[in-house]
Amino acid sequence: MFNTAISMVQDHGMAEDIAQEVFVTVYKSILSFNEKSSISTWIYRITVNKCLDHLRAANRKKKTGLFSQLFNKDTGIPLVQEPDFIHPGIVLERREQAKYLFAAIETLPDTQKTVFVLAHIEELSQKDISEIMNLSVKAVESLLQRAKANLRKKLGDVYDRRKKQ
Amino acid sequence: MENNNSKEQWIDAVMNSTNNMGKAQPGDNLYIKVMGNISRPAVRSQAPVTKWVAAAILLLALNLGSVLYYTNRNTISTNSSTNPIAAEIQAETTYNY
User: Fold this and answer.
1) Which of A16, A83, A141, B73 could covalently link to A99 via disulfide, CB atoms 3.0 to 4.6 Å apart?
2) Residue at B55 is within a domain
3) Does B56 fall in a domain?
4) Among A45-49, A148-152, A157-161, B77-81, which is the least confidently predicted range?
5) Is residue B31 part of a domain?
6) Which among B10, B24, B34 has the least Cβ separation from residue A24?
7) What is the pLDDT of residues A13-68, one digit of tens each?
8) What is the chain A residue with the closest CA to B23?
9) In the structure, what pLDDT confidence band is assigned to residue B83 with cuts at 50, 70 and 90?
10) B39 lies within 8 A of chain A by CB
């Protein structure tokens, strides 16, 4: 749960707050949990929703800056600053590359970001993701393809920008 | 061509940088925070202040409205009893021909 949260919001403090909120929500509403889905799916769903709520609130507070070090949020033009978020689970020799990936993930639309994090970081199956997000497997597949295509394009732009410097 | 290849290689490397990654762990104090949060007695939620303000304004408006209404009514009836023309008209209408 914490791993999902930190991958989505890319902030250790905010991820801890979310983990705390998820625990409390689960504790308080465990009796109303219907067994249509598994408990892990239910907890993932709560976590994802809390992450998106926190991100929206953070974006409202700080329209630019916080997570958009690599791209301008309004124009989408790549910026030259180095991204600074490092996921604690990344192996040392890939940290530099992963920084660029996480900065690009941050700029994806909410649904694409969620699908990419659940598929590539949590390594969940498309079926599990479809249950968490209340979507069809086909929709998840399509979102994942679009997320990857978007990421490749954004990373390509970053590569070109870095080459020019 | 070579430039394109190295670009694609770099993108692939970045895209695969999360392979075999470990799970991030929260700080040790998260458990204590959660337990503190769960065991804290629930605070009774209060109605938003705006509701009370709206109710007070409504009550004030109703009071003011009724005061103005009755003041106006009294003024009209007092006027008709002290106004000589009005009294004359009234006398004419009640005069028995």
Assistant:
1) A83
2) yes
3) yes
4) B77-81
5) no
6) B34
7) 888 889 999 988 888 888 877 777 788 888 999 999 999 998 888 877 665 544 45
8) A89
9) low
10) no
> To probe the interface with B, which of A97, A148, A162 has the most B CB atoms within 10 Å?
A97
B34/A160 touch (CB, cutoff 8 Å), yes or no: no
> And the tokens for A86?
């490092």
Q: Are A52 and A110 in contact (CB under 8 A)?
A: yes
pLDDT of residue A66: 43
Taken in order A84, A90, A91, A97, the sign of the CA dihedral is negative
What total number of domains does chain A contain?
Answer: 1
| Residue A15, min C-alpha distance to chain B (Å) | 8
Q: Name the residue range of residue A97's domain.
A: 2-164
CB A50 within 8 A of CB A18: yes
Total domain count for chain B?
A: 1
B81 in contact with A, Cβ within 8 Å: no
Within a domain: B66: yes
Give ipTM to 2 decimals: 0.76
If you ran DSSP here, which 8-state letter would residue A11 be given? -
For residue B97, pLDDT beyond 60: no
Query: Is A27 in Cβ contact with B25 (below 8 Å)?
Result: no
Which structural domain, as residue segments, surrounds residue B78?
50-94
**Cβ distance A15 to A9 under 8 Å?**
yes
B42 vs A: CB within 8 A = no
Write out the two tokens for B69: 């209404």
Q: How many helices (H) and strands (E) does chain A have?
A: 7, 0
A89 touches chain B (CB under 8 A): yes
CATH of the domain at A86: 1.20.140.160
Q: What is the pLDDT of residues A85-126, one digit of tens each?
A: 888 888 788 888 888 998 999 889 999 999 999 999 888 999
Task: Quote the pLDDT of residue A67.
Answer: 47
B29, closest residue in chain A (CA to CA): A16
Query: Are residues B26 and A15, on separate chains, in Cβ contact within 8 Å?
Result: yes
Residue A140, pLDDT above cutoff 90? yes
